Amino acid sequence: MDLLVGVDAGTSVIKAVAITPARSERALATRSLSTDHPEPQWAQQDMNTVWEQTAACLGDLLEQLPRDATILGVSIAAQGDGCWLIDSDGDPVRDAILWSDSRASEYIQQWRTDGTLEEIERICGSELFPGTVLPLLAWVSDEEPQRLETAATLLFCKDWLTYKLTGERTTDLSDASLPLLDIYEQSYSDAVWETTGLAEYMHLRPELQPAGSVVGSITESAAARTGIPVGTPVVMGLFDVAAAAIGCGAVSEGDSVSSIGTSVVNQSLASTPRVDSTTIQVALWEDLYTEAIGSNAGTKSIEWVRNEIVDEGKTSYSDLETAAQSVPAGADGLLYLPYLSPTGERGPFVDPNARAQLLGLEPSHTTAHIVRAVYEGLALALRDCYEAIPNTVSQLYVTGGPTRSTFWNQLVADCMGVEILVSDSAEPTAVGAAVLAGVGTDCYSDPTVGTSQVLSAPDRYQPTTAVTETYDLLYEQYVQIRSRMVEIWALHAETTSQLPD
Q1: Given this model, what pLDDT does residue 115 score?
Q2: Sorting pLDDT into bands at 50, 70 and 90, what band is 131?
Q3: Residue 51 is inside which H or E element, if any?
Q4: Reduced to 3 states, what is the DSSP secondary structure of residue 346?
Q5: Partners of 233 in the beta sheet?
Q6: Pick the CATH number of 2-241 from 2.30.30.100, 3.40.50.300, 1.10.3720.10, 3.30.420.40
Q7: What is the DSSP annotation of 156-208?
Q8: Rg (CA), the chain
């Protein structure tokens, strides 16, 4: 039996899948990861622990496979951004600093003030945040210069794991995009290093290699740790958000994907990068990019209304949705702004003071109205993100817990006004990596062929024209209200900070 292996190395969980070239998941293994927070707002992981857990996860996967299984290839997708440094011997020079770390916030503020940030973003096509590699390198240079004296290569998480499997030091366009690439040329930019005063560290950049190409093969030491045979090809993967798009079936311009959980990641594929983008733009390979926006407006609102408003969580989600369906679109004038996260919102606008509201409450409104408004608020927030990505959305793939609900999927179709496709892939990021393993080992000519072989036909939901017209009107109101709330949120935050504990 021939199998392809894909790994999804996330921040808290590592997942590995094995699939046959003509079907989806054959086996799945998982291992957990912890994140260290030695200081407030810091987020680090021991690089060797990340490797050890990944190797153990692969070993667990192989134990589930039949004895006659042949692994054709392996590919890694992983958390992006952060700072993963190794020395000339291939050993970490410090713990990895993660994408969620905020220690370099002052560099972002300084670069915004002096114009450096604008210049970098003009080149790389994306907005920087503290957890991207250049501000983190600036912090290491100032606070731990001895680390950089011994550093030989700058990697990202998937590249560190690929190095441990093969001994090769490489990265791909997707991880390098933010902010090391000239996004329009798809090549390294010297200017971003010179502009930030970090030019002396340009030698740390690894070789760029296309996703879906063979990086190397499993070494003897990696074989001993994972159980994967020596010589098995290892194929260049993508950072996790991009790999998830492939694993859902989104491989062409106009395809869009929303991964919906506690937080939401929305992305849309395009053939060219956009000038003056206020989002994150990532090159996947030649002539294909993804533009992404993360949002905090996720499923916490549904959990909140079920646990705190309805009946302390005793009602099933199915009954919750039945209640919502008893109320017409628009919830009889009740509008919910779904900014329930204590850290505010991060997309399509950034405001740490943003908070949730129910607007328009009247005595006639019932619990069912509140439930309906909460679901609609989440769908409107989803649309808000895609309105900030002016690519034409031809079809929207959705994945995550809520997509098991026909009510939710139809609501999103009606609110967005586009066809919704629900992928059958339970682990889209790992499956996307496995598809790339198949491309690199000539099982597929390209990812489009791979997804057509691996994924079943998705469930489809068509928008209802009359209902979409209602949501068009509600969306205009939604944007105007949340825009006008900025000053009120700031006032509320200032007042709240003065209240006694």
Answers
A1: 95
A2: very high
A3: helix 47-63
A4: coil
A5: 217
A6: 3.30.420.40
A7: -HHHHHHHHHHS--EE-HHHHHHHHEETTTTEE-SHHHHHTT-GGGGGGPPEE
A8: 23
Tens of pLDDT, residue by residue over 445-488, are 999 999 999 988 889 999 999 999 999 999 999 999 999 999 99
Q: Where are the domains of the chain?
A: 2-241, 300-387+464-497
Per-residue pLDDT of 244-290, as tens digits, reads: 999 999 998 889 999 888 888 899 999 988 877 777 888 998 889 99
Q: Are strands 288-295 and 214-217 parallel, antiparallel or unpaired?
A: unpaired
In DSSP terms, which residues pair with 16 in a beta bridge? 7, 29
CA distances 189 to 20, 69, 155, 238, 474, Å, are 39, 43, 16, 20, 43
Tokens at residue 166, please? 């093969």
Tokens of 35: 């994140």
Instruction: Give the C-alpha separation, 236 to 161, whole Å.
Output: 11
pLDDT digits (tens, 9 = 90+) for 259-271: 888 888 899 999 9
Average pLDDT over residues 9-13: 93
Give the residue carrying structure tokens 């024209």.
465
Report which of 44, 181, 36 is spatially closest to residue 99, judged by C-alpha positions: 44
CB atoms within 10 A of CB 94: 19
Summarize the confidence of residues 166-187 as an average pLDDT: 95
Q: Are the beta carbons of 95 and 46 closer than 8 angstroms? A: yes
Domains 2-241 and 300-387+464-497 share a fold: yes
Q: How far is CA 335 from CA 28, 125, 262, 408, in A?
A: 41, 35, 21, 17
Going from the C-alpha of 205 to that of each of 3, 152, 156, the distances in angstroms are: 33, 9, 11
Q: Are 51 and 160 in contact (CB under 8 A)?
A: yes
| pTM score | 0.88
Q: How confident is the model at residue 24 (pLDDT cuts 50, 70, 90)?
A: low
- The CATH class of the 300-387+464-497 domain is alpha beta
